[in-house]
């Protein structure tokens, strides 16, 4: 078996750790029969999370009212199939899992205010779920198996339905075991209905360290090696940036036109989360959240001696004054 380096191990470790972190976004509760917004053709049993009594349930009036207040936009319907497939990755033919026959899965694009209606069909030989990463939603649509829903069994399907409130660059992925690292992910783009700018072109890029099918390795094999404390040192020239989390903080001279938003998703290479979403308004900047960014402020040229002699120093605003805040 191929022994991966730290670089290839990174995705597997974070995917495993991330499942516990992401589960924190959901609350326990007990849905009332027949009122669950998600539907499943073969998993019709109501999900009953375990937790202390007194929590608000997903079907309670408070939750329903909050969901209605999020938006009344049009219903946008999508369908995905989680399936085994064969892919050509740069000349390497590998068998893996994906949404449909593409890697990443097809882009989902909506507008803030819409209602997402996404049906996931499970054609895998294992259970699965789907998590919308970074999206604010009702807890029972969060896709965390055993916490917010039953897993979707092989041959079954489940419909995720919730209002979309915040524009930005997000992604969807499996929230079951190491399935994310097998290719079960896709971009989720939420457009701003009040976007003031127009663009010549738009790019959506997903970056991922690939393990599945390379030198007979699988994400589960890599995780097992990691848990046993086995890895090989990362062989990298010291002139290179060894932190995969930070390259997107760098800016480079603008070398081409047209300008437009770069939607960059860093799949599981980030040391603190399974992914980062980035949206930028120019090809030179990005961020590690779902919000648009702006070009960094430029540093003014230092004043010359003659400038200093002829100019009157500007008064320094009080530090507590709102007018002193730089925007």
Automatic annotation (TrEMBL):
Entry GO MF terms: copper ion binding; oxidoreductase activity
UniProt biased composition (Basic residues): 247-257
State the UniProt keywords alphabetically: Copper, Metal-binding, Oxidoreductase, Signal
Q: Tell me where the signal peptide lies.
A: 1-23
Q: Which InterPro entries match?
A: Cu-oxidase-like_N, Cu-oxidase_fam, Cu_oxidase_CS, Cupredoxin, TAT_signal
Bias regions of kind Low complexity — which residues?
28-39, 267-292, 301-313
The answer to whether UniProt assigns keyword DNA damage to this entry is: no
The domain of life is Bacteria
- Could you tell me which residue ranges the Plastocyanin-like domain spans? 86-194
Spans annotated as Disordered? 26-51, 230-327
Q: Does the keyword Ribonucleoprotein apply?
A: no
Q: What is this protein called?
A: Plastocyanin-like domain-containing protein
């Amino acid at each position: 078996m191929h022994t991966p380096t730290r670089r290839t191990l990174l995705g597997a470790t974070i995917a495993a750790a991330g499942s516990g972190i992401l589960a924190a976004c959901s609350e326990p509760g007990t849905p009332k029969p027949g009122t669950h917004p998600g539907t499943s053709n073969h998993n019709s049993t109501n999900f009953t999370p375990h937790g202390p009594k007194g929590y608000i349930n997903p079907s309670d009036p408070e939750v329903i009212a909050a969901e209605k207040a999020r938006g009344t936009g049009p219903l946008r319907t999508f369908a995905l199939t989680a399936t085994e497939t064969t892919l050509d990755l740069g000349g390497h033919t590998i068998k893996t899992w994906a949404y449909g026959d593409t890697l990443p899965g097809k882009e989902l694009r909506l507008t803030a205010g819409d209602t997402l209606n996404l049906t996931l069909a499970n054609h895998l030989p294992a259970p699965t779920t789907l998590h919308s990463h970074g999206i604010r939603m009702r807890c029972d649509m969060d896709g965390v198996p055993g916490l917010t829903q039953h897993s979707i069994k092989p041959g079954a399907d489940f419909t995720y339905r919730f209002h979309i409130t915040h524009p930005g660059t997000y992604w969807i992925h499996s929230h079951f075991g190491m399935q994310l690292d097998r290719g079960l992910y896709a971009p989720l783009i939420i457009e701003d209905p009040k976007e003031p700018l127009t663009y010549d072109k738009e790019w959506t890029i997903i970056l991922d360290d690939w393990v599945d099918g390379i030198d007979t390795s699988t994400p589960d094999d890599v995780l097992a090696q990691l848990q046993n404390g086995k890895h090989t040192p990362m062989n990298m020239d010291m002139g290179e940036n060894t932190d995969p989390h930070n390259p997107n903080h760098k800016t480079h001279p603008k070398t081409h036109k047209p300008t437009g938003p770069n939607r960059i998703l860093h799949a599981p290479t980030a040391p603190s989360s399974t992914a980062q979403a980035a949206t930028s308004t120019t090809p030179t900047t990005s961020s590690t959240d779902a919000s648009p960014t702006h070009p960094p402020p430029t540093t003014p040229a230092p004043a010359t001696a003659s400038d200093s002699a002829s100019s009157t120093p500007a008064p320094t605003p009080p530090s507590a004054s709102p007018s002193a805040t730089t925007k």
